Each structure stands twice: as structure tokens, then as C-alpha cells.
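job 3f2a | input accepted
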Amino acid sequence: VTISLNTFMSLHKHVAGAFAKSTRKIALHSVQKLNQPQSLLIIPDGNARWAKANNKQTVEGHMSGSHALGTLLEQFLHLDTKVVGVWGFSEDNWKRPKGEIDGIFHVIHDAVITNLPKFHKNKVKFLVLGKRDQMKKEFPYVVKAIEKAERETARYTKKCLALFLDYGERYQLEEFAKARAKNHKGTTYELLVKINRGLPLFEMVVRTSGEQRLSGFGPLASLAEFVVINKNLPEVGYRDIVGALREFSSRKRRFGGRPDTKQLNSSSVFSLATTS
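job 3f2a | predicted structure (276 res):
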């Protein structure tokens, strides 16, 4: 029996794809037995460095990073993590070249449009946090897509994907001061939940590219376990996320106390993101 080269290559590709999918399922299943974070923040980093190393334009790095991030986020649909946050654009990112900023928001727009059907299929609530004034002026088409996705997914409570745009510690301090001026009796946690639309404190922060800093994200990450992935975002795969989750599971969270005493569950401080 003989087969053509094209048939052989097609068969090989099919078998390799099935094997990779099976391997991924086994890896994710092994993580399900571990202590998983209920809330996870991803700081995606390294797109420009990846592009430079591969002789590509910076915007190509952001496009590749967005694709890798989308693949990673799909894995969390199979895990117990309820809230996943992505810091897509910080307050300081406006300092970047105009062409790069335009490219970033174009990628964000395409990602929101492309993933909206997946949000519906998997009952994922989509939220965007941060300042919108400048985005409305420079990228109204992005804000329109964001608001549409927020409206359409507002009723879902199974999972939550929070995208942080023009967000950071300065924004949080400003919003907290406004909230405190209106509410003198509310606790710090109550005010934080109000200005962050019901999101819990993050239990885990994952940053790609090997950088070991929070870059002024703000108080939602103040009690999180920090795990670094030493790869630029476009190079990150499910094995890296599995490794990060294993690292988180191996740690003992004490919150200033002792291992043998009852500890605070940071996710219980706020209600999960079920408010609009």
C-alpha cells in the first residue's frame, strides 16, 4: 500500500495535533487536583522584545502576544479559577510612540470582537476597568466594541475576564479618594470593591518576560503570590501556565500569620465579579 506525500503529511499533522491536544488535557487535569487561585492577574510582557529578536515590527509582536494570550485564557475555562485579569494597557503606556499605541488598540479591538462569541458560549462575563476619557477621544471604535461586549455578557456569573486599560495605581488612588469623600464610614475593602466593579483581590499574579515587578498595578494585587515566566509573551504556552500554577500551589499563604492558624482568603474579601 502506498500513499502520497501530501496524504502522509496531512495524516502526520492530524496525529501530531491530536497528541498535542491529549497532552494538554492531561497536563490541565493534573493541575485540577492542586490548590488553584480563585483570581489571577496576568501582566503580559515581552511583545516588543520578541519582535526585535525575530526581526519583526513591534505591532507584529503585539499581534503574536495577543494570539498566545488568547490560547492561554482558553485553558482557564477548564480550571477552577473564577476571575482572570489582564493588564492590557497601563497609565504609563501612553508614553510610547503613537504608531505602537495605535497598533495596541487595534489588536485589543480585534481581540474583543473575535472572542465575544466565545464569551457567550462559555458564559464568561467581560469587564474593562480603567479610565476611558482618552480612549474615547482617540479610539472610539475600541470603546464601542468594549461597551457592546460588556452589555451582552453582563448577566453571566460563571467566569469573569477583566481587561485593565489605562489602569494603574494613580488611577486607583484618585478613584479611592473620590469614593472616600462620598462614603466616610465604608471600609477600605468596601470602597475598593466599589471602584473595581466587584472584583476580588487577586490571589496570584503571573508576569511574562522574566520581569520581577508589578509596575504600579495597584492594590488589587497587593496580597497576591507573584510568579514569573521567563519567556516573552508570544513564546508562552500552556506548559508555562501549568508550571506557574504548580508553583502557586506549592506556596503557603500566611498573610502575616502562622501556618497553623486560620488565614484570610483574599477572594472572600469581595464578592466575585457578578455586579455590572
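job 3f2a | Strands lie at 39-43, 83-90, 124-129, 159-167, 204-208, 225-229.
job 3f2a | closed
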